[in-house]
Design a protein that fits this description.
Strand order of the largest sheet: 1-6-5-4
Helix content: 55-70%
Number of helices: 5
Number of strands: 6
Number of domains: 1
Order of helices and strands: EHHEEEHHHEE
Oligomer: single chain
């Protein structure tokens, strides 16, 4: 049996532009919806400074929590060795990402990202609407838009079997897909 390798890639320049546009759209949408629901908006310099601080702190916490959840998912859902998991920071691209050096099942890979996104993307958004926190809503908008690359990658991976093996290379915006060919007749 031989392996055929396919490479699923995301155009980095294109995804950055799309993420910025989606962040702006979601920010406007969430702010307008929250204003419609809460009907409470007052402006002051102190509130602005506090809001920016909350936004920055929440954004950092969401990114770190998301990557920690990915690590937990790799370890316990994908059953990879602890030594194969790493957390990396790419200051040049402004990215924090977790990865494993092991190949994992396509279905497990997708479930790890969907689970962590649900917890760190959707839950803070719901809390933001519940308490009427504009900084939390804006941080959620940024985080949800930032997940666009993952969703585009997952969408491309759905055409491959759930049990095929994949290996993520987040620094290259790529995932290697390992497909087994049929056994050769002997």
């Amino acid at each position: 049996m031989t392996n055929h390798v396919k490479v699923v890639t995301i155009d980095e320049q294109k995804i950055v532009k799309q993420t910025i546009i989606l962040t702006i759209i979601l920010s406007i949408l969430f702010t307008a919806l929250n204003y419609f629901l809460q009907r409470d908006f007052s402006f002051s310099i102190l509130r602005l400074i506090l809001g920016v601080a909350i936004y920055l702190i929440v954004s950092l916490v969401l990114v770190i929590a998301n990557e920690l959840l990915n690590i937990i998912g790799y370890r316990f859902r994908c059953k990879v060795a602890r030594e194969s998991i790493s957390l990396s920071i790419n200051l040049e691209k402004g990215l924090i990402y977790s990865k494993t050096s092991e190949k994992i099942k396509n279905a497990h890979y997708q479930s790890v990202f969907l689970t962590s996104f649900s917890i760190t993307g959707i839950l803070p958004l719901a809390i933001g609407f519940a308490i009427g926190s504009y900084p939390l809503l804006l941080a959620s908008a940024s985080f949800i838009a930032g997940g666009l690359a993952n969703f585009k990658g997952i969408n491309k991976l759905r055409k491959y079997p759930d049990d095929c093996l994949v290996q993520d290379v987040p620094e290259d915006f790529s995932v290697y897909v390992y497909l087994e060919s049929e056994k050769q007749a002997s």
